Amino acid sequence: MVKTSNSPPSLAKWSVPSDVPISDADHLVDEEEGGSRRLRLLSYNVQMGISSAGPHHYFTNIWKHVLPASCRFRNLDRIAKLISDFDIVALQELDAGSHRTGYIDLTEYLAQKAGFPFWHHQLNRDLGQIAQHGNGILSRLLPTAVTEHRLPGALPGRGALMVRYGHGESALVVLLIHLALGKRSRLLQLDYVAELVNDYRYAVVMGDMNCAPGSPEMRHLFGRTRLCEPAQELHTFPSWRPNRSIDHILVTPELQVRQCHVLNQAYSDHLPVAMELTLPDELQLTV
């Protein structure tokens, strides 16, 4: 377990699932013929493990947001199988262990089921036994620092989770975010994100941003940072008839994108976005 003290706002803990061999901490990104290295990323809003196949499920499944449901874990097992092929996975809308999940931390559950040696859950809305709502990140690479940030906005409960791999100018920073529904709050939140990533040459920002690439909020972010949308508009929502591009993986230009696409696996009301990067030689991810 790695512990880092950062400000703002709190002490962050990087956890190792007990049933994953610690030797997996030495896992490195895949190296292809010719010596190039690739890193596989995935961003997925998993909606508390609730499967949705149509708008009517927002009403028929509403009880699953407050009460335990055995079908939740059958669906999470399917999600675990899907994400197991990736190196770093950013997950939105998870619970750290409350009545509705049988007091099981869903981030840890997915880490164990998918075989990830490292995971971290950021609690953004603490509703006691009712809900422990937040986001989680799973990794096959050991980070050097994990920092939690509270995002500004009209309503509290939105966060950014920053994970750093390596040191100094050769470090890679991965930022997981889930932005607000309101445009004004998203603009404030993306201003905060810009301040975080502008300190790094190699940066990835991924998550549910609740806005399209051509929106004023995203154009504002691109104008303030070197981040760019590396692929065509990818429709991820709603999963049963995707017509909105609101889930994104953004990277700085120094990271070469090999491919970026949506996975047609409707285990949530969102579809996941996958990206494969080729890493430059000077980028060192090991500690």
Descriptive account of the structure:
The protein has 287 residues and is an alpha+beta fold. It has one domain: Deoxyribonuclease I, Chain A (4-Layer Sandwich). The chain has helices at 57-60, 70-83, 106-114, 183-197, 216-224, and strands at residues 2-5, 11-14, 30-31, 37-45, 88-95, 118-126, 132-139, 145-150, 159-165, 172-178, 202-208, 247-251, 256-262, 273-279. The strands form three sheets. Strands 3, 4, 5, 6, 7, 13 and 14 form a seven-stranded mixed beta sheet that branches. A five-stranded mixed beta sheet has the order 8-9-10-11-12, with no helix packed on it. A two-stranded antiparallel ribbon has the order 1-2. The longest helix is centred in the middle third of the chain and has 15 residues, at 183-197. The two termini are 14 Å apart. Mean pLDDT is 88; it is low at 1-13 and 18-27.
- Taken in chain order, the helices and strands follow as EEEEHHEHEEEEEHEHEEE
Count of DSSP strands: 14
Radius of gyration: 18 Å
Gap from first CA to last CA = 14 Å
Feature tags:
287 residues; alpha+beta; Deoxyribonuclease I, Chain A; five-stranded mixed beta sheet; 5 helices; globular; disordered N terminus
Give a quick rundown of the structure.
The chain is an alpha+beta fold and 287 residues long.
Chain-wise SSE layout:
Blueprint: E1 2-5, E2 11-14, E3 30-31, E4 37-45, H1 57-60, H2 70-83, E5 88-95, H3 106-114, E6 118-126, E7 132-139, E8 145-150, E9 159-165, E10 172-178, H4 183-197, E11 202-208, H5 216-224, E12 247-251, E13 256-262, E14 273-279
Parallel strand pairs: 4-5, 10-11
Antiparallel strand pairs: 1-2, 3-4, 4-14, 5-7, 6-7, 8-9, 9-10, 11-12, 13-14
